[in-house]
Amino acid sequence: MSETETQKPNLEDDQGIDVDVLLERLPMAHGMIFAELFAKRGFSTVPVARLLQGTGTVFALEEKGADMGLMRATLDEEGLTGWVIPVECDGPTFPMPDTSVDLATWANSFGATDASSGYLKEAYRILRPQGVLVLIDAIEGLEHAKSESEAAGFELQEEWSLYPGYYTLVFQRPAV
């Protein structure tokens, strides 16, 4: 990397990323059901859990394996064990009821996920009508994320430029 290039911050490592910028824009409400897909260390799980603690429900969805242990360790460190519900997923199947989530986020792994269309279909299934899905990932995958999400039935509501080198897309599941 040359001296004139700037390194893009890594959302997962929280390098220069102010998650409060995202939280200010999310449609948060007391009593809501929130889920972070591929939660890893809880980019949005932890701050949303702090905001909703006692007034809503927060799920941290993760694939079986090492990242689930990382999520549980983060919840312990943050004092959120027993309040945030870790959900272990087996492939593109979320063990959650239909139309049970108000807001979901998926950050920093959409472009690297095999079978992203299957995961989007599951996100669509668990979101309530008019529920919101927020995708955040490297700008190089912007058009792919838009087309895959729209093919899964989501409607693009907004596009934000919150973080250098990343897109933030806000989709809504249409009303029935």
Short account of what is shown:
The chain is of the alpha/beta class and 176 residues long.
What would the keywords be for this entry?
globular; 5 helices; alpha/beta; 176 residues; 7-stranded mixed beta sheet; Rossmann fold
SSE topology:
Elements: H1 19-25, E1 33-37, H2 45-52, E2 57-63, H3 66-77, E3 85-89, E4 101-107, H4 116-126, E5 127-138, H5 142-151, E6 155-160, E7 166-172
Parallel strand pairs: 1-2, 1-4, 2-3, 4-5
Antiparallel strand pairs: 5-7, 6-7
Overview of this protein structure:
By secondary structure, the chain is α/β, with parallel strands linked by helices. Strands 3-2-1-4-5-7-6 form a 7-stranded mixed β-sheet, with helices on both faces. It has 5 helices and 7 strands. Helix content is 27%, strand content 28%. It has one domain (19-155): Rossmann fold. It has helices spanning 19-25, 45-52, 66-77, 116-126, 142-151, and strands spanning 33-37, 57-63, 85-89, 101-107, 127-138, 155-160, 166-172. Strand 1 (33-37), helix 2 and strand 2 (57-63) form a beta-alpha-beta unit. It starts with 18 loop residues before the first helix and ends with a strand.
